[in-house]
Write a structure and sequence with these properties.
The protein is α+β, with helices and mostly antiparallel strands and 475 residues long. It has helices at residues 2-14, 52-55, 59-71, 73-93, 145-211, 217-252, 280-283, 288-309, 354-420, 426-460; strands at 101-112, 123-140, 314-325, 337-341, 344-346. Strands 1, 2, 3, 4 and 5 form a 5-stranded antiparallel sheet that branches.
């Protein structure tokens, strides 16, 4: 037993050694600045530092997002995957310590008396009670094989946790976009209904003018065409609003209370006006998908250590201590103690190239993980750059569209006055009405694009990402 204790102490002392390569984060394969310059480019603050409640400031939208974080089924699956990965890590980590088991047994046997004493007849009845405690096949991790596998499982757990965060950020952005789209389509429905009411009034007026002989049938049919077109657009807009509600309900995972639904007025939905981008080197390494790719890379790096350790001897220990007695009452009496200690060493001599192949396979997996990490960084860089490019011009686009709506409104008013005085034909008035209707729709689409761009920029920056370079084991 003294030898057993010495061996266990040696295993504990050497347990921190591994043959895994020293991990170094790959150099980011992107530029040191965003292609589109931003006022906050040199700031250490970015959208990744902002919690979602700081970005989505409308109380109703906040309530809907909070409800989705409780009820969304995809997020529940991601959380369950975390628990599964955590359990797998704990299972792998348990191999670092010996598993101690207690065993008890009772045996009753019968042997012919002649087997022990020639010529003796009859049989012997033998009873034996045994109790023991010990462990079997505990590997002394002298070359870090078990610890490397444990580290790989830990990094896989961290990667799964980051994937859960990525799902959460995507869910928040999708719910926000669905909410904003619903508000925009409600505004579009209001524009369509307003246009329909205006055209129905014009149709009623022209019908009376036609009956009085003051207008031609062509004018009447043209006004009727526009009115029916607006009626069709209104029906489409109503259906789209219902589809938007259905999409929001699916994302949330539950029925959204009517008091929390938008009632149009897209501009009233509070979204932070400006989300700082920060530096690429600070942002990209904090995005959940990039962090998950890096943890996967670290897991593959640890697997190389386990593959290298397979070339070295493996020492396993089996030991137990207990008591054996023919009588249950004397099981723990004097002279019944028993113990065993069976160390075993396995030295690989010939494995048909399996160990070399395993090592090369582990190195190939590590190289693939490096490429996947770099691709995740490049994808993140592009997504942020695209969002910044849109942000750089969206306000100019909206301002131009607002001026277009203002000009189209004045044009329609003036054309209406000229038509009423008989200066312009009704065709000119119809053209002015079409222009204003299209301009209002385009302005609304641009306003939705600006709101969606803020949401996308927040998601692309990894909104709410934790600070630091790597999470720690929480046990």
């Amino acid at each position: 037993m003294r030898s057993l204790l010495v061996a266990l102490m040696a295993a504990t002392a050497l347990g921190g050694c591994t043959l895994a390569p020293r991990y170094e984060r790959p150099v980011l394969p992107v530029g040191s600045s965003w292609p589109t310059s931003t006022p906050t480019e040199t700031s250490n603050v970015s959208g990744a530092d902002l919690a979602w409640r700081d970005v989505f400031q409308d109380p109703r939208l906040q309530a809907v997002i909070a409800l989705s974080l409780e009820q969304n089924r995809d997020l529940r699956v991601a959380v369950a995957n975390i628990e599964q990965a955590r359990a797998q890590y704990r299972i792998q980590r348990a191999d670092l310590l010996p598993g101690i088991n207690a065993n008890g047994s009772y045996t009753r046997s019968s042997q012919p008396a002649g087997a022990a004493i020639p010529g003796q007849t009859g049989s012997f009845k033998l009873d034996q009670y045994t109790v023991s405690a010990g462990f079997s096949a505990y590997e002394l991790d002298l070359f870090g094989r078990v610890r490397s596998l444990s580290n790989a499982a830990l990094q896989s757990f961290f990667a799964t946790e980051e994937n859960r965060r990525a799902v959460q950020i995507s869910l928040i952005s999708e719910v926000a976009n669905a909410y904003l789209t619903l508000a925009a389509d409600q505004d579009l429905l209001a524009i369509t209904l307003d246009t329909l009411a205006s055209r129905e009034a014009g149709l009623d007026l022209n019908r009376k003018r036609f009956e009085a002989g003051a207008a031609s049938e062509l004018d009447l049919r043209q006004v009727e065409t526009l009115a029916e077109q607006a009626r069709s657009d209104a029906a489409v807009a109503k259906a789209q609003v219902e589809r938007d509600r259905n999409a929001l309900r699916l994302l949330v995972g539950a029925e959204v209370p009517a008091a929390q639904l938008p009632q149009g007025d897209l501009k009233a939905v509070g979204v932070l006006a400006d989300i700082p981008a920060g530096l690429p080197s600070e942002v990209l390494t904090r995005r959940p998908d990039v962090r998950a790719a890096e943890h996967t890379l670290q897991a593959r790096n640890a697997n190389i250590g386990a593959a290298r350790a397979a070339f070295f001897p493996r020492i396993t220990l089996t030991g137990s201590e207990g008591s054996v007695s023919p009588d249950l009452s004397g099981l723990f009496g004097s002279g019944t103690r028993t113990w065993s200690f069976a160390p075993q060493i396995v030295l690989p001599i010939f494995a048909g190239g399996a160990n070399i192949a395993n090592l090369k396979g582990a190195e190939a997996q590590r190289d693939a993980a490096v490429a996947q990490y770099e691709k995740a960084v490049q994808t993140a860089f592009r997504e942020v750059s695209d969002a910044l490019a849109t942000r750089a011009t969206i306000n100019e686009r909206i301002a131009a569209q607002e001026r277009l709506v203002e000009a189209a409104t004045v044009t329609q008013r003036l054309t209406q006055a000229r038509y009423d005085r008989g200066v312009d034909s009704y065709l000119a008035l119809l053209d002015a009405q079409r222009t204003l209707y299209a301009a209002r729709q385009t302005l609304l689409a641009a306003q939705l694009a600006r709101a969606a761009n803020r949401v996308e920029l927040y998601r692309a920056l990894g909104g709410g990402a934790p600070t630091g370079t790597a999470p720690t084991d929480r046990g």
